[in-house]
């Protein structure tokens, strides 16, 4: 049994101590707790194989044993008795999400996760995973069918159920009507739609919903009268490899406001697609032309016409509102199929309006009915709207089943994103399920009864119910804010009628309702008539910094606070009953505030005196309490203004500590730059001087102040597709400082992260302030207290040399290692270089240090208005810098490739003859010797530097081979042998033919491409190259980038980039000291294609011998290890000279068999000891086996190797592959070493050589 299970059970007993009621429900298997330990979901496995769950909160069971899984059309259940629990994994995530817009600026993404991996030994599906996550505000679970070779299985129903532990009270969504409820669970009979909000006691509230619905029908719940059990009635998609269900979500709070404030649904959706830039998405208030139709003011009659639109745009611009929404019929009668949504009645007026709106800074939304959306090509329509410059699309009256509507909604949302359009779905839309995280342009939808829609009004009780039911699902477009509350058929078109509310309540509701776009329904004059309320509307400057439901009860009342940069805004609303509300101001920061209070008048009433209000202004502190009087159907509005000292931080020092407090940084803001002092164990290491930019020939010389700071802490792990370790730890603390210049108020953001491994910072430029500007220079300085020793190379493939900081000449490639003192080394470099100019390092203009120099200008628009990360790693030994190189990966975005099954590391052998005969022999050799790939290098499609060489054809370069080479035949043969084929393509063909060759190579069956002699350095070359990697991923092609490119961690984001050169490898015949310099310097930034040689003459004449080559294969990491670089198998055709010559024939023996068996990726890596340029000892683990590489560039050396990394030394057999004689560099000697109980092994290494100690775990039985 998993020992974790025992821990869980013990924890559960402690947690439930004294609660005997729980004992009968104690599950037999696994429990997942929320991070705060207040919630628990327990999973139980029954004898028939079925899984059930139980949910408890604060020591009380709220959902008792409820079923999980599926029922197939074959009547089998998944899982059933034949299924086995193969593995159980868990993890903790402590992250933060920063939405572009939402209820708050920073969202904690903290959860505990359990994955139960189920195996079906016979039948389909072959596997299933149950994934459970526990958050502090609820639980979620989903079903996954892993990618693989399994078949598609038809599903009859989902078995998920919610068996409530009591006859609680519930409310439900009810379309454009008042919500269903309150009703007792046992009184419910039939189907219900989510959100289902449940009150299980005075301090227990739940909401049932779903998140991240990719396939299948949207959630429908079903119950049977007399029971408290609700089942999932909606039909799921069929189970096929790669299937993931929607998350089933149980939100929980001790008040209903916790449900409304939750971000759990969004957190269960993925981050935005990296193909799209959503920086253009701006939330805000909008005016609207639909409800104004027919209103008359001072002789002007409002209608859906250009003069009215201009009047509304002027009002929006005056108040700082962002949008005007044009509703139905602007292109003709919306339900008539002849109404063309591009060329219709008022299309020319609309285009004229769009230009006018742009001049006034007001975006224009366009309405599109489903009839026009389907009859006319939707792609062309939305592209036209985007080309016109429209801000968004309001899509109405979508037809189809709920499943069809969900698919169509997703399609329109993505098309809108492609055309930079916001989108609002109206008239019975599919429920929100958190998709605005993935698609931030999906700002709202009418998942409610919008006021006055459907020719009827909603009552006050409906509003204060909807916010605790419908709005839990996500943003809702409710059209609150009508100020002409006595309108009727004679004053407005569309069968208008009086609105049962008060003016104050209408204004408050605009704040209470969460929506990315709040749409105001009335004419400007009615808003201007009540200036205090208009100021309250204008103060709603989204995005919100914080939102919180301060008080409330379902169907009774609500008090909502939302924070802007300038103020705290509070809105309160009640049902048909008036009430007094005591409101503590403890949610405010410490200080004094000016509070404007707008309340219903003493005689106000939602039916008889809607307009009565009173306004007072008071000076209050966070320790005070306000008493608010709400009339029946009324409300209250508060504007609590921040003082300037709360908004702007002047020159100051901001402190940051690493997670273990090993390191700390002082970030000093003041004057023309920001300095970061970095300390390691209290000792100052380096000062980084930032903001040293020149823009379009003008240096940024402004004084900077901090206008805002945001902090977050991350403590998580992630599993790479491959790497030097199977699990990567990502722990850091971050501060994000918004900087503003005192001269022109331009803004930029400096993000600073501090890990235990080092410091990283990057710049982000405000898009409007720096629109299309060009960075011409960056001189970020890294200054030390004395003249330190450093190791540099001017070229990525160059030799390293040792010098002092004062002796630096020219620009050095990064990373650059500097020795600060006897026990401290730093590495300076950059990470996440994707679309910027490469940074190199040169001697600083003042002091002892280095400063950045760019390899070309940077257009900020192309760079996405942010820089790569600049980093300083710190360690006590140069080997520790390399061991911690996951630091660079952590600074890159997570993996963007959904299915990575096709990405496979392994050894690669080059086919040197470029003939069919040689290819077949090479493939046979590879298959026999565990070599995964055969590479066809330069020459297979012609002379690589000739622009006329066509990489879509096989035309062997006669200067390299006489051929013939039948590549299709070779690929077919390789596939039959389980060997992959890789091909080389030079930059000249890449630039001309990339979009043609990638799909072609996929069709041929090629597994990967080696990009040769690529351009590097400047921004265009950098952006093009990483785009070429992304394009290769689209066709499931792996990539190796050769020559001067050095990695900055992009293989985390696109792991099809397996390796790259940018290294002084065996092609340059490096001496062993250069190899050790390379190991301690170049390998900090990532994998290196070292082109490892073995039989070539240079190995014994210029390098450390064949035993050293074995050691280099372990020490120099590359997921694709290119082996036998100049060698050919014995059965390949002979060559007169060069690669594959008589001297370079592979001869198989025990040493080469070991050479062929060395893994290329690892589960664990440790640098045990060494010295720069002299020797290195590296231990790497694959599975249970350890490979210890020792390289010695100096004289004979004795190495004492501690064995503390072995759990039980007696279980291991040790084999040493080494060079016994200084004269016999072509001989690898092999000997067994008995470990017994020794705590260390002593190895004698001769000079200029290497060895590998293979520690293999004995397999018993």
Automatic annotation (TrEMBL):
SUPFAM superfamilies: (Trans)glycosidases. Pfam families: GH97_C (PF14509), GH97_N (PF14508), Glyco_hydro_97 (PF10566). InterPro entries: Aldolase_TIM (IPR013785), GH (IPR017853), GH-type_carb-bd (IPR014718), GH97_C (IPR029483), GH97_catalytic (IPR019563), GH97_N (IPR029486), Glycosyl_hydrolase_97 (IPR052720). Gene3D superfamilies: 2.70.98.10, Aldolase class I. The keyword Hydrolase does not apply. GO terms for molecular function: carbohydrate binding. Its cofactor is Ca(2+). Residues 544-641, 1161-1255 form the Glycosyl-hydrolase 97 C-terminal oligomerisation domain. Residues 32-269, 656-894 form the Glycosyl-hydrolase 97 N-terminal domain. The keyword Calcium applies. Residues 293-446, 914-1063 form the Glycosyl-hydrolase 97 catalytic domain. Keywords: Calcium. Monomer. This is Alpha-glucosidase. The lineage of its organism: Bacteria, Pseudomonadati, Bacteroidota, Bacteroidia, Bacteroidales.
